[in-house]
Amino acid sequence: MKRGRILDVLLMVCFIATLGLAFTMGISPDNGLELGGKPLGNVCIFRQCFGISCPFCGVSRSMVALAHGRFIASLSFHPMGPLISVAFCFFVVTAGRSLWRRDSPVIESPVFARIAIGFAIASLASWPLRAVIGALPATTYMVLK
User: Fold this and answer.
1) Residues paired with residue 39 on neighbouring β-strands, in sequence order
2) Helix, coil or strand: residue 33
3) How far apart are CA 95 and CA 99, in angstroms?
4) How many angstroms separate the first and last alpha carbons of the chain?
5) Do residues 63 and 84 make contact, with C-beta atoms less than 8 angstroms apart?
6) Helices (H), 1-145
7) Which residue ranges make up each domain of the chain?
8) Considering the entire predicted model, what is its pTM?
9) CA 31: distance to chain centroid?
10) CB count in 10 Å sphere of residue 4
11) From CA 53, how far away is CA 131, in angstroms rounded?
12) Model confidence over 95-131: pLDDT tens digits?
């Protein structure tokens, strides 16, 4: 199996698992993630190491909120969360189609690289703006009941 094909399958599995977990997880009243009603605590390694929110802090909660139909809450946790969720779904469908038709791997496509870089730049660009206006997840307290 080609390296690109292996990476396509690996990313598909990761994205499907992430999207599946978003439906099974919840958000506690203090805006932390919970699984089976039990809080997970701080899951951001960057924040644990440096004490500040990373550019992607809030994406997990955003995806969970979106999976439970709370679009506005999803945007409040991270403005890129809904777009990242859509991109994950699009990648899974496109890579699955590519595998089925035995086309070239999606990960080797220049379009994939541009989209991935675009999401990274948008998240990095929103980071200082979110910090200045106080919208980083550490300061966003919106109970989702």
Assistant:
1) 34
2) strand
3) 6
4) 47
5) yes
6) 3-24, 45-50, 59-67, 71-77, 81-101, 110-132
7) 3-137
8) 0.80
9) 16
10) 15
11) 9
12) 999 989 988 898 898 888 898 898 888 888 888 877 7
